[in-house]
Amino acid sequence: MPKTFSLNFVTPEKQLLRALPVESVILPALSGEMGVLAGHTPMVVQLGFGSLRYKADGKEEEFAVLGGFAEILHTEVNVFAEGADLADEIDEEEEKQKIKHAKDSLSRKDADIDFEMAELEIKQALTRMKVKKRRLQ
Questions:
Q1: CB within 8 Å of 42: residues ≥ 6 apart
Q2: Three-state DSSP class for 63?
Q3: In the chain, is it the N or the C terminus that has fewer CB atoms within a 10 Å radius of its CB?
């Protein structure tokens, strides 16, 4: 049995990875982290907010994932994320500013404020910051 499989990773904005040979993938499934190795049982998994990690050539990379789903097949994993950012490219200060702006909007309680959107922005920024901090450890 092969020890690697292909990883494809796309968001609505761009293709992040195409047919990358990987040894393992850890997905942020809604019910918790899920590990995938070559030959995994085929399934579709809904993704939550969290860290997607993969190992290729003995090196690990990490993305902050903001929902979506993954299709797991015997020889490949296809990730369709609603949003994703490479951990090394996340700007922690920018994420702090997003949280501050969203919290300021919520505290004003204007009729024009979309509360669900402000809460989603906070959740996304917190996810990115968590992944960035994890990467720095």
A1: 72, 73, 74
A2: strand
A3: C
